[in-house]
Structure formats: structure tokens, C-alpha cells
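Hi support team,

I've been running sequence recovery on a batch of backbones for a student project. Most finish fine, but this one hangs at about 90% for roughly twenty minutes before it completes. I'm not sure whether the input is malformed or the queue is just slow. I've pasted the C-alpha cells below so you can try to reproduce it. Let me know if you need the job ID as well.

Thanks,
M.K.
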């Protein structure tokens, strides 16, 4: 094996056209976090480009150019979650997961946890773990991703005094009525016990049990909106795929 050959597992989270026949793959890897891989003359030289499509999880062989660029040398495809490509809503949610994953830094201490979260979420979204509602899978991914980033506050008590919280402040965390009175109303979002319990359930369980929560439709819709707004606020970006999902799912006035 060449001394310059690098091997790692990774999933394609974005495909960027580069010149006429080349592409640049944005990959979330198990060892090096987020990396960018150049595929030269992709349209002409590579017969099967499945490895270079979103959701494709592969064992990649990479060379490093004299300029330091990672260049595709070969791959072994592990999975590409074909089930997602036959359902427009699931495909959009999968693309949303990948777009969120582009927020992972290029250098991070434990990239495997982000890769595992994405792979497990796509696995469940594909229906391989049984019938689980897409909106539940989406909510769990958002909250779990924020937790890995250190952005998800404790929902069990007020961040200031340990009393029972009833508001969510996107900078201060969950607050009780008294502590929330220090902040203007437009910075506060009221939350009920069902919302607080659901967040705690997601953060304190694993595997299939994470998706096994029940709440009223009104509470779920409120939490769904809060989760979407919070992840965009903390990651300081708007997600195009989320906008598409909202167009597909939410009732128009």
C-alpha cells in the first residue's frame, strides 16, 4: 500500500460540481471528521457514481496531492439507503440530516459520534427498524445533534434556580416563571410538561426507545417548531432542506 494512501469510512453529505467533469465530495468521516474529497474526471472515468451520491456510506481510499488536497482513489460501498429515494418526504428529511451534518467542524475530537448519529438516523428513516413516524425521527435527530454539540440545555429544572421550568430562552435555557420575568417576552417561548418530558426522554434514552414517546398533537407541533428554530439559531444558519420539508408538510393558510 502506498505510504500516501489514506483509508477511512465516511458518508457523503454533499456533492459539489467542480469544473465540467469533476466533483468535490463533502464527507463526514469516522476518523477525521468532515473532509473534502476531489473526484477527478468523475463523469468520464467512473462508471458507477453511487459512491458519490448523497447518503452513500463507503470505505474510501484517498491520495493526498502535493497541495494537500484529498483525491479519490477508490471505494467500497457499504450502503446508500435506497429506500429514501422512493419517498419524497423521507428523502427530504434525509437531506436535511445531511445539511445539518455540514455544521460539523473539519477538525473535531470525536467525529464517530456524529457519524453514528447520522447513520443510525438514516437507517431508522429507511424503515429498517420498523414503522416509526418520520416526524419523530426528525425531532430526535435535531435534539441529539444539538446535545452532541453541547447546545441542548437540561429540561428537568430551571437553569437559574432549579424550580420547574415553563419557558425556553434560546440563550439561557429553560426558566421558571420568576426567572423568566427578567427577559423580554419576545425572547421567551412557553413550554409545558409534555414538551419538557419529551426532551428529557430523548436525551436520556438510546436505540429504538428514543422514538417511543407520546404527546398531544398540539404539544408535538409546538416542540417541532421550537426544535427547528432552535437548531437554526444555535448553528447560525437557515437550512434550505428544512424550508422544503415545511412546504411539503405544514398546512398552508
Amino acid at each position: 500500500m502506498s505510504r500516501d494512501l489514506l483509508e477511512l469510512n465516511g458518508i457523503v453529505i454533499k456533492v459539489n460540481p467542480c469544473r465540467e467533469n469533476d466533483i468535490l465530495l463533502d464527507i463526514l468521516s469516522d476518523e477525521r471528521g468532515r473532509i473534502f474529497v476531489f473526484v477527478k474526471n468523475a463523469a468520464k472515468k467512473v462508471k458507477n457514481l453511487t459512491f458519490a451520491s448523497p447518503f452513500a456510506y463507503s470505505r474510501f481510499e484517498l491520495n493526498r496531492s502535493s497541495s494537500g488536497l484529498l483525491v479519490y482513489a477508490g471505494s467500497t460501498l457499504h450502503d446508500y439507503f435506497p429506500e429514501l429515494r422512493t419517498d419524497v418526504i423521507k428523502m427530504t428529511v434525509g437531506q436535511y440530516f445531511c445539511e445539518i451534518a455540514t455544521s460539523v467542524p473539519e477538525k473535531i475530537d470525536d467525529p464517530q459520534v456524529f457519524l453514528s448519529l447520522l447513520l443510525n438516523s438514516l437507517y431508522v428513516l429507511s424503515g429498517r427498524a420498523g414503522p416509526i413516524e418520520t416526524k419523530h425521527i426528525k425531532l430526535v435527530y435535531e435534539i441529539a445533534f444539538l446535545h452532541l454539540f453541547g447546545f441542548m440545555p437540561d429540561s428537568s429544572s430551571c437553569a437559574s434556580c432549579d424550580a420547574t421550568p415553563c419557558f425556553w430562552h434560546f440563550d439561557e435555557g429553560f426558566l421558571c416563571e420568576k426567572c423568566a420575568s427578567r427577559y423580554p417576552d419576545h425572547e421567551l417561548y412557553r413550554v409545558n410538561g409534555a414538551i419538557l418530558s419529551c426532551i428529557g426522554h430523548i436525551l436520556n434514552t438510546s436505540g429504538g426507545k428514543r422514538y417511543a414517546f407520546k404527546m398531544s398533537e398540539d404539544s408535538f407541533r409546538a416542540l417541532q417548531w421550537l426544535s427547528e428554530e432552535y437548531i437554526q439559531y444555535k448553528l447560525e444558519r437557515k437550512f434550505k432542506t428544512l424550508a422544503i420539508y415545511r412546504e411539503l408538510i405544514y398546512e398552508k393558510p
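--
Follow-up from support: It reproduced on our side and the slowdown came from queue contention, not your input. DSSP finds eight helices and eight strands in the chain. No action needed from you.
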